[in-house]
Amino acid sequence: MLGDNAKLITTGNFTDDLAKIKDCDFVIEAVVENLEIKHKLYAEVDKHRKPGAVIASNTSGIPIDSIAEPFSDDFKAHFVGIHFSTRRVI
Fold first, then answer.
1. Residue of 53, 11, 57 lying closest to 37 (CA atoms)
2. Is 39 assigned a catalytic role?
3. I need a labelling partner for 61 at 20 to 30 A (CA). Which of 82, 83, 84, 90 fits?
4. Among residues 39, 48, 78, 83, which one is catalytic?
5. Is residue 90 part of a domain?
């Protein structure tokens, strides 16, 4: 099951692959903990994301509300915070 699901994930970066976001249902950002940088990135992401796509930040130190604040209600409704762990869950 896990192997089957793994093929649903595509890696990319926001420099070379931003246009691919239009085809994604779930996008995870993991850039430096700097609110200005995140705002600039999400302004670009918002231009390319498809309606209803979930956008997630891997932030650990910036409040999620602060990141989403300047964006549309639709963006906010589909924006979440996540944090990766090194623990393996089986």
1. 57
2. no
3. 90
4. 83
5. no
